[in-house]
Amino acid sequence: MLRHATTYRVIYGDTDQMGVVYYANYLRFFEMGRSALFRHLGLSYREIEARGYVLPVSEASCRYLAPAHYDDVLRIETSLDTSVRAGMKFDYAIRREPDGLILASGQTRHAFMTPEGRVVRPPGFLREWIERLLETP
Amino acid sequence: MLRHATTYRVIYGDTDQMGVVYYANYLRFFEMGRSALFRHLGLSYREIEARGYVLPVSEASCRYLAPAHYDDVLRIETSLDTSVRAGMKFDYAIRREPDGLILASGQTRHAFMTPEGRVVRPPGFLREWIERLLETP
Amino acid sequence: MLRHATTYRVIYGDTDQMGVVYYANYLRFFEMGRSALFRHLGLSYREIEARGYVLPVSEASCRYLAPAHYDDVLRIETSLDTSVRAGMKFDYAIRREPDGLILASGQTRHAFMTPEGRVVRPPGFLREWIERLLETP
Amino acid sequence: MLRHATTYRVIYGDTDQMGVVYYANYLRFFEMGRSALFRHLGLSYREIEARGYVLPVSEASCRYLAPAHYDDVLRIETSLDTSVRAGMKFDYAIRREPDGLILASGQTRHAFMTPEGRVVRPPGFLREWIERLLETP
Questions:
Q1: pLDDT digit string, tens, across residues C10-49
Q2: Contact at 8 Å (CB) between B70 and B12?
Q3: Looking at residues B72-86, what average pLDDT do you find?
Q4: pLDDT at site B1
Q5: How many whole angstroms separate alpha carbon A94 and alpha carbon B65?
Q6: How far apart are alpha carbons B57 and B110 in whole angstroms?
Q7: pTM of the predicted model, to two decimals?
Q8: CB of A91 closer than 8 Å to CB of A107
Q9: Model ipTM value
């Protein structure tokens, strides 16, 4: 249930001279995915920041399975791993539309921090929000 | 005298599938150029910010004369147009090393602002700094 | 008639430490705009390339009127200036949704080239395509 | 011995509104690092391509330990893991100059491919080149 998909169309600026999407840009796609997931679940990342928390990435990884090309419509599937409690962990799959071929998969881990950079425990409002979502049938 | 040059080597991530540097990245090179100019003149942009001013770009333009390729060493020549008083204006030329072929030329204009986004007059310390540089034989 | 609008939501990766969209990224938005215009008019840029032509940017300019922020939905309005015959020229306006505030305006000029980098005259199929669109009531 | 370090100064365009370098950009730094390593070892990536091979990334990962800031000079340390035979694997450490604080570490794995996208065995010239380097006292 804590998953969501959004789409993005590859532009020239995403590609490199190999004729495929440059590998660093998949981490941008991951951000699009988790941002869309937050919005879908009713709590935008902008709001989390407004409440005094930032969620910097502590780890990111990506496996590149097949190249994405210019003008491809990518389907960015994001899910929140609710088993992780200390911070947040997201899993991603990037698929090509319309055939669904999987192009890449990856993960990011995030810590809860104050804007000044101090690591803090997961804020109560976020824990409650996740628990409420998990209970929704 | 208020000019300076710095170099940058093109990476894969700067190119696009046409096999040349993507056009938006020249504006990154321009930033490298003016940042190096500030440092060369003894007043880093970081210090200007520390004194409570930001210099957002109000206009940018670029003419693309010949393409830059992967692994090219670019020479970014930046000069400060000291005839402009209301804000700051920089002129740029991007040349390929070692033959000096000009690849692009451009300009950026900047306003003086507070971090909150209010346009302000050029700060005295910056005016004095420029005048001192201009007087230096 | 030869105009079109598309939207894009700003991600963290588009912003800089001033808390606004980094100036070079507007040129990415311009590309999204003209790419969407081509598709809307029934001739994707991908097809133009497939027919053996590329359209590298020869000039780009942008005026930054008000900053775009994280999570803003941008409306990218693109129009093709059909008075330009030698190459192609596009005009852009970036507006913030939903209030329509104009954030930036700009232009790009493009030459017709072979993939090998030789400048050529506008291909007949493209001229005919534009004329047909202009005649459509 | 198969290691090398290069430096890069962070620009505004690398940062995001959290005031630190955006996480995807570390993968650009990794590319700068391995590209500098290749050149240092006497075989530029450009040459490998000229001989008909590309080395697309099959896996990338990064651990973010401390944030990099605007104007920081980063030291990108890259080493080639010569125990990996099927493709190539690089390890990276990003340190802040001049204090050497480690900001990030990561890895990339690469496959050998033809420009058409067919996976091939490591080319002889590259195996020999690595063996020669390993034997050099």
A1: 999 999 999 999 999 999 999 999 999 999 988 889 999 9
A2: yes
A3: 93
A4: 64
A5: 37
A6: 4
A7: 0.96
A8: yes
A9: 0.95
CB atoms inside a 10 Å sphere around CB D111: 17
Distance from the C113 Cα atom to the nearest Cα atom in chain B, whole angstroms: 11
Which CATH number fits the domain that encloses residue D14?
3.10.129.10
* pLDDT value of position B53: 92
Q: pLDDT by residue (tens digit) across A76-114?
A: 999 999 888 889 999 999 999 999 999 999 999 999 999
The string of DSSP letters for chain C reads: --EEEEEEE--GGGB-TTSSB-TTHHHHHHHHHHHHHHHHTT--HHHHHHTT-B--EEEEEEEE-S---TTPEEEEEEEE-TT--SSEEEEEEEEEETT--EEEEEEEEE--B-TTS-B-PPPHHHHHHHHHHHH--
Contact D15 C16 (CB under 8 A): yes
Q: Show which residues of A are catalytic.
A: 16
**Minimum Cα–Cα distance from B12: chain A residue:** A16
Distance from CA of A32 to the nearest CA of C (A): 7
| CA distance to partner chain A, nearest, from residue B71 (Å) | 12
The beta-carbon neighbor of B25 closest among C24, C62, C67 is: C24
Give mean pLDDT, residues D49-60.
94
Q: Which of B23, B25, B27, B29 to mutate to test the interface with C (most CBs of C within 10 A)?
A: B23
CA dist., res. C49 & res. C65, Å (int): 34
Closest CA to A74 of A52, A97, A41, A56: A97
Spatial distance between the Cα atoms of C131 and D57, rounded to a whole number of angstroms:
45
For residue B132, what pLDDT is reported?
87
Mean pLDDT score, B49-61: 94
Widest pairwise Cα distance in chain C: 48
Range A114-120 contact pairs with CB under 8 angstroms and sequence separation of 24 or more: A114/A52, A114/A53, A114/A54, A115/A49, A115/A52, A115/A54, A115/D18, A117/D67, A120/A53
Residue A61, domain extent? 3-135
Element (H, E) at A64: strand A57-64
> How big is the A-B interface in CB pairs under 8 Å?
30
What is the count of structural domains for chain D?
1
